Amino acid sequence: MLYGRITKFDAADGLGTVILDDGREIRFSLTACGYFRPEVGKKVRVISLTEGYGGQPKATLIEPDPRVGS
Fold it and tell me: Which of 4, 27, 47, 54 is the most exposed place for a label (fewest CB within 10 A)?
């Protein structure tokens, strides 16, 4: 599994960025978040990726990091 932290999220556009623990940057859209509301600083787990704009990876499903207590 890939883990990281949301570093950017623009609610008006519904687009954001996750920096993975290994330093890679992954973009995502609000639809990838399913049931939770993305917030800058939130730790997440990236479940699936696809090729996004310009060949850059894009998360298609992310969720709150289950290793972090509620």
Answer: 54
**Angstrom distance (rounded) from CA 57 to CA 19:** 12
How far is 50 from 43, CA to CA, in rounded Å? 20
Nearest CA to 52 out of 15, 21, 20 is that of: 15
Specify the CATH number for the domain of residue 12. Answer: 2.40.50.140
- Residue 40 pLDDT class (50, 70, 90 cuts): very high
Q: How much is the pTM?
A: 0.89
Q: In the numeric block, which tokens belong to residue 26? A: 């992954």
Q: With CA atoms as reference, report the closest residue to 8 among 41, 33, 31.
A: 41
- Residue 69, in any domain of the structure: no
